Amino acid sequence: MTLSTRDTAEHIYAHGLRNQWHPVVPSHFVERGGMRRVTALGEQWLLFRRSDGGLSMLADRCPHRGAPLSLGKHLGDRIACWYHGVEVDGTGTVTSVPGLPGCNLEGKALVTSLPVREAGGAILAYFGDEEHPDPVELTLPEPLADEEISAFLCYAEWDVPWRFAMENLLDPMHGAFLHSESHTMFAGDTTAKFRIRETGRGYFFEKTDQRGVNFDWVELCHTGVDWVDLSIPYPPSAGPGGPFGIVGMACPVDAGRTGVFFWRYRKVSGWQRDTWRFLYRTLIEERHWEVLEQDRVILESMPADADQRENLYQHDLGVVRLRRLYQAQAGRQSGAQPASAS
């Protein structure tokens, strides 16, 4: 059953946490009048953009015989199942059964429909459970809501557990090694000490002896959706705007695949905004994809049980804190004890 509360803590920890928003795919993946089958949290969903431009997200299962609605026909504000023509609107309500008009299926909400919202060029959806179907309040990351900030969304899918992608972001020290040949991460010491600094919405994991040189800090935020913010120093040759920021999110596709979302941003306006965007598209973007490729290669090369056979040290405090938070959430959502890990 979709949105079941009967899942174990281990299943939730592997496939993604409930009762919060997750990014699903970039907005341009679903054009007006189009539809797309997506997998999120290990479940099959149908995204379709109605004729008015609005989005709907339905469980990809016809309530009649279970055929995928994603194989059906887009009728503007509803989908007609290919198998028997049963029509379902964006709320999951059966509007018509052509084979037997007036039958008792009509007028019933028989397909799960998720709340959706678009922000920063991405589609976000609220994944609740049977006890928490109504969406929690969503506060967007400041860089996605500030009109003075210019951002580019970079999206990719990696064959890694979603936790590995998030843990990678809570591990600033890897920048000095994995990305040592990057045009922005070559500087700074390869030794450091870290601390956790609590905030009202999460925590900072930061170097205590270096700032503004490399990937020196990261903030984890819980604002209805989980996201991280970090800053990387940029030379004047990279254009106006000062430090270069990244907002990162991850969508659990299933237990072994993750959609990663990275918004690269700078606070610029006027002609400086135009200059920055031109430089990014013509010069900087390719270099950033090279850095992301390094992350993908190392994470996809790790075994699925990598987080169960480790010997951690002080630099891993941010990762340990993240795991404890997520294991506790998975345990609460299953009604059981926290999920097991390393």
Automatic annotation (TrEMBL):
Pfam families per UniProt: Rieske (PF00355), VanA_C (PF19112)
Stretches assigned to the Rieske domain: 21-125
Enzyme class (EC, first level): oxidoreductase
GO molecular function: 2 iron, 2 sulfur cluster binding; dioxygenase activity; metal ion binding; monooxygenase activity; oxidoreductase activity, acting on paired donors, with incorporation or reduction of molecular oxygen
Entry's EC annotation: 1.14.13.-
Record key words, sorted: 2Fe-2S, Dioxygenase, Iron, Iron-sulfur, Metal-binding, Oxidoreductase
SUPFAM superfamilies: Bet v1-like, ISP domain
InterPro entries: Cholesterol_7-desaturase, Rieske_2Fe-2S, Rieske_2Fe-2S_sf, VanA_C_cat
Domain of life (superkingdom): Bacteria
Protein name, as recorded: 3-phenylpropionate dioxygenase
Species of provenance: Streptomyces parvulus
